[in-house]
Amino acid sequence: MSDYAAPLDEMRFALDEIAKLPEIAKLPGCDGVAPDLVDAVLGEAAKLAVNVVAPLNRVGDIEQSRLENGVVHTPAGFKEAYRAYTEGGWTGLAASPDHGGQGLPVVLNAAVNEMWMSANLAWSLCPMLSIGACELLELLGTPEQKRVYLGRLVSGEWTGTMNLTEPQAGSDLSALRTRAVREGDHYRITGQKIFITYGEHDMAENIVHFVLARLPNAPAGSQGISLFLAPKFLVNDDGSLGARNDLRCVSLEHKLGIHASPTCVMSYGDNGGAVGTLVGAENRGLEGMFIMMNVARLHVGLQGVAIGERAYQRARAYARERVQGKPVAARDGARLPILHHPDVRRMLLSMRAASEAARALAYYTAGEADRARRHPDKSRRAKAQARLDLMTPVVKAWCTDLGVEVAGTGIQVHGGMGFIEETGAAQHWRDARIAPIYEGTNGIQANDLVGRKLLRDQGAAAADFVADMRRSLAARDGQDADGHLARGIDAVERATAALLETAGADLGAALAGSEPYLRLLGTVAGGWLMAESAAAAMRRLKAGAGERRFLEAKIATARFYAEHRLAQAPALLPAVTGGQTVMGFDLDLI
Q: Which helix (H) or strand (E) holds 112?
């Protein structure tokens, strides 16, 4: 079973050449983000991920978290790993220094989080949720909520959760029934929530739950939802922990993967109501929760990158060691590792190219988050925010779909041994399979991309993105793959125009084409960024800067992506524009 190795060269290349970290480092508040600091952050994170977190991945999958007498016990080593994580200050990497954070760029934090996710996806979910909780409170928390909770969430002393889903209300939050009744300066919350990741655990002394609930006279539907903060333990005025709040984990879900992550059924108000305080305004809870959800969606997209990287590393190691058959190109009929078989080589290159393209898109989008937050020019901030809004559903859905695909290909590289749990290849696929589902299914992401992002500005943000891709394509000297990219960009432009026209007459037909549209946009955006990577690698080669074999591999991988993935992008057009076929099909015949 192979060990995880943090791909620091790949990550640093994507940070510098795709996200343009050197430019971000010049933005206000990033003055101290020098190259040696970036190297130090990545290097220290890699040590913790490789030496402490990764060895617990298989342990957690086997032991799983367990519920005993109302207490969730995480697998052996998880608490110690989390303690090492908090002692290193990793939770507050991108949080504001005003609350104990380090204020480093979002994109650097993304690279660090990729390592935790690759090392141990189930373990990484706990600190990931706390990052979103910190951002939510920074933006919407009252002074008292920030005083009591924010610093402890930033430090990792306490952890955060999202409480949205209920048994009768999966993705349809308008159907939720959890209630909150005002009682003096707080509210009493009653109801049940399901699928609550790390809703109960033993890694931190307090858990801060962010809960969606309805007030007694709230409007029906999603307009009548409010957001509340309800801690596991109530907090005294001096910050010490008080009595246990009236909320508890009543069971753990038995899941396909991420076994070590406790997915809880939470009960609120069995003894009178859990005490909570309002976050934001009454009946405006979804707006607040979307702050946390959008942070989570970018991180979930990064999970696709991370699990793909881990599956690729395992498959590559196996292919280099496993000897079976005689490759057609072998001299004298020599028996060589299966890496030498053409189809195994093709599968590994497919895994590599997909993972690199997904990483490029995730880092690129995280870089836009930094510009939207910090750029001194108002128009550049607005453009970055529009790009971030457009690409967030693409990162979440496209990258997680690729993560599942890559993990599945990793099993195929192993052959029959991939279907055997002891090799570890199957765990990556099992763990990856949740990512296209949680934080809004990938179908919901596609609907958001078309139904909200395209329609709210009539395709202006998408047109701006297409224009940027065309400009960078025109600035290059006709690389081999540029024909595929040009045709892909044309397909995105035609698909966007077709969907906007269709949506005016038949929104259902437009939404029926939203998933292939998202796939098209992701594939072409990934191809554009792979072409940018190849161009950067060529510049470095000409300048004699960097390790030659690494740069040559970047160029070759970009070419493979163009020929094997990007070339197929225009073929998605009929699916994008064929929504009437979907909507016109007799439901009784499905």
A: helix 106-119
Distance CA 551, CA 557 (A): 10
Distances (CA, A) of 77 to 184, 423, 432: 43, 21, 22
- In three-state secondary structure terms, 252 is strand
121 pairs with which residues across the strands?
A: none
Q: What are phi and psi of 323, to 5 degrees?
A: -105, 120
* Structure token pair of residue 386: 């529009």
- The SS3 of residue 5 is coil
Tokens (6 digits) for 450: 């078309």
Residue for token pair 């993967």: 257
The one-letter amino acid code at 561 reads: Y
Beta strands 233-235 and 241-244 are: antiparallel
Could you report the per-residue pLDDT of 19-34, keeping only the tens digit for each? 999 999 999 999 889 9
Give per-residue burial for 416-435: e unless 16+ CB within 10 Å, then b.
Answer: eebeeeebbbbbbbbbbbbb
Q: From the candidates 10, 138, 439, 532, give the one annotated as an active-site residue.
A: 439
User: Do residues 203 and 79 make contact, with C-beta atoms less than 8 angstroms apart?
Assistant: yes
Express the helix, strand and coil content of the chain in percent, nearest 5 each.
60, 10, 25
Query: Of 225, 267, 255, 230, which is closest to residue 245 (Cα–Cα)?
Result: 230
Residue 542: Cβ within 10 Å count: 8
Q: Is 456 exposed, middle or buried (0-12, 13-18, 19+ CB in 10 A)?
A: exposed
Using one digit for the tens of pLDDT, what is the confidence trace for 211-267? 999 999 999 988 999 999 999 999 999 999 999 999 999 999 999 999 999 999 999
498: tokens are: 């077709």
| Of 549, 412, 570, residue with least CA distance to 489 | 570
C-alpha dihedral (92, 98, 102, 103), degrees to nearest 10: 100
Q: Is the CB of residue 226 less than 8 Å from the CB of residue 214?
A: yes
Q: What is the DSSP string of 398-436?
A: HHHHHHHHHHHHHHHHHGGGGGSGGGSHHHHHHHHTTTT
By C-alpha distance, which of 313, 388, 361 is closest to 115? 313
Eight-state DSSP code of residue 569: G
3-state SS string for 113-152: HHHHHHHCHHHHHHHHHHHHHHHHHHHHCCHHHHHHHHHH
Burial class (CB in 10 A: 0-12, 13-18, 19+), 173: middle
Establish whether 515 is a catalytic residue. no
Could you report the per-residue pLDDT of 361-372, keeping only the tens digit for each?
A: 999 999 999 999
Tokens of 508: 């259902």
Longest dimension (CA), the chain: 85
The structure's pTM equals 0.97
Distance, CA of 449 to CA of 400 (rounded, Å):
16
Centre a 10 Å sphere on the Cβ of residue 589 and count the other Cβ atoms it contains: 5
The answer to whether 562 touches 527, Cβ cutoff 8 Å, is yes
Nearest C-alpha neighbor of 8 from the set 348, 399, 359: 359
Residues 270, 247: Cα–Cα separation, whole Å: 7
Closest CA to 303 of 372, 355, 371: 355
